[in-house]
Amino acid sequence: MTLTREEAWKKVALHPDPTLTELFAEDMERVDKLATRLELRLDDAPAGILFDWSKTHLTDDLLTDFEKLAQAAKFDEMRDALFAGEVVNPTEGRAAEHSALRGVGKDSSVEEAEALRERMRLLTNAMHEGAFGEIRHLIHVGIGGSALGPALAVDALARDLPLVDVHVVSNIDGVALEEAFEACDPATTFIAVASKTFTTTETMVNAQSALKWLVDNGVSDATGRVIALTAAPEKAVEWGIDETRILPFAESVGGRYSLWSSIGFPIAIAVGWDDFQAMLDGAAAVDRHFRDNSGRENLPLRAAFADLYYSRLRGSQTRAVFAYDERLRLMPDYLQQLEMESNGKSVTVDGSPSGPTAPITWGGVGTDAQHAVFQLLHQGTHLVPVDFIASIEAGDTLDSAHHTILLMNCFAQGAALMAGKTSDDPHRSYPGDRPSATILVDDLDAATFGALVAFYEHRTFANAVLLDINPFDQFGVELGKEIAKKIEKGGERFDASTEALLKAAGVG
Ligand code: F6P
Predict the structure, then answer these.
(1) What is the CATH architecture of 5-14+23-72+293-473?
(2) Known active-site residue 77
(3) Residue 61, number of CB atoms within 10 A of its CB
(4) Which listed site, 141, 171, 334, 397, has its alpha carbon 20 to 30 Å from 80?
(5) HEC assignment per residue over 274-294
(6) Looking at this predicted complex, what is its ipTM?
(7) How many angstroms separate the CA atoms of 82 and 371, rounded?
(8) CA 263 to ligand 1: nearest atom
């Protein structure tokens, strides 16, 4: 019998709350059931990721009831609609076809993405081969989804000797752009202007200033050094960029899902085409897993079950992500946009109040965070579910002590959060029973990186479907932009506090 969404939630909410320690004692197979390895490649270079959700409060029975909730939410149908390129963003009447960029989706969209990717490959290779003269630096200007993915990927994958030195600049604060200018030689620098709409104020102002910097530094044909990455190619032409240097992508690719499109150009320029393609292939392996599995076997959906258990039933208002890998230090920033811009909503698809939706995503890198914020995780009053991310293979070439200590610390934190510690001294007691999930990558390379990001994308979508919200619009960011434009235009009065601030700063 299929339950309604409300009935399914009621069943989920009725479960008792045994402690994690009790759950491990009750079920000897808990690790086998809840720590699942996803193989990305089965060829002679196997690569995989272990998704260990055993230190969460998920149980067989709870999973069964969450599966009923997924059925009530028509999860399989919604997921199939996503891959079929149907409208899954009803408020904007759009599909969300980021997986087509990786080769998994509606045939015509996959073909279109392949053609655009080929264009990007040719330009990337031509630049590497010197067709545009010597290129040592790329200043990539973009913001939000047009910057966070490229910044994360370049930082993670292009650490040793990038083919081209990439600087991602997003902030309108000129300090950010000046920092990039300091590090680049104008004679060998190209500018990438990344904007889906090609209208975003920060990006367009930064692009103008970057162009001016080239001109002021004696670069002839400065606009010939600018490349546009956009879903609005006509606007890039208007801006003065030659069509041959415009890399378009489809309107159906959302900004925060766009690193797989031409927005990922700085990644390809930094790491080379083969690694960019490997990143897409790694993500495609997760797409196929997500498309072809149901219920608890579907790892992003399983993770979403745990997410909702904590946010809806245990009142967790935040979730923390700690990468025990310096190369992933930008992961929390990236996930903040992915998860909070997608699921930071307060109404369901039909416009009624939704109840609690996305928790606040935050985090940092291990082991640094242990010496800064972990006190609260262990002894504070908030219940904060944690994701740990680590790679078995080291990212460094120093002796193995560094990496071994790093991994030991990562696993120790998960164990400590769960076990807690009793003491006669309340100041020295740890309550324990604090949940964590561990994502353990065999080796962080382009493919496993792509897979990791795709896992988080699908987990975000799965959460949205179970919550009955639209993850693909972001109207909440518009009002601030409108007010900023009104201030710029002048002639309008605002509240007394804002007026006083404008006066104090002498702006507006
Ligand atoms: O401010 C929100 C937003 O629309 C993001 O969703 C998007 O990634 C970012 O702005 C940048 O937009 P664009 O790529 O059009 O410049």
Answers:
(1) 3-Layer(aba) Sandwich (3.40)
(2) no
(3) 12
(4) 334
(5) HHHHHHHHHHHHHHHHHHHCC
(6) 0.98
(7) 42
(8) 14
- Alpha-carbon gap, residue 192 to 272, rounded angstroms: 16
Domain 99-276 top-level CATH class:
alpha beta
Q: Which pLDDT does position 461 carry in this prediction?
A: 98
Q: 47 and 443 in contact (C-beta within 8 Å)?
A: yes
Q: Which one is catalytic: 112, 202, 339, 341?
A: 341
Secondary structure (3-state) at 107: helix
Nearest CA, atom 16, ligand 1: 195
DSSP-H helix ranges across 158-308: 174-183, 201-216, 233-239, 265-271, 273-292, 299-308
User: In which residue ranges of the chain is CATH 3.40.50.10490 found?
Assistant: 5-14+23-72+293-473, 99-276
How far, CA to CA in Å, does 171 sit from each of 15, 203, 312, 374, 401? 46, 8, 35, 30, 38
Amino acid identity for residue 321 in this structure: V
Average pLDDT for residues 81-108, to the nearest whole number?
97
- List the residue whose alpha carbon is closest to atom 5 of ligand 1: 144
Whether the Cβ atoms of residue 451 and residue 49 lie closer than 8 Å to each other: yes
Largest Cα span, the chain: 75
**Which element (helix H / strand E) includes 67?**
helix 60-72
> What is the tens place of the pLDDT at every residue in 346-394?
999 999 999 999 999 999 999 999 999 999 999 999 999 999 999 999 9
Using the mean position of ligand 1's atoms as its centre, give its distance from the Cα of residue 200 in Å.
Answer: 7
Residue owning the nearest CA to atom 10 of ligand 1? 144
Is the Cβ–Cβ distance between 128 and 100 less than 8 Å?
no
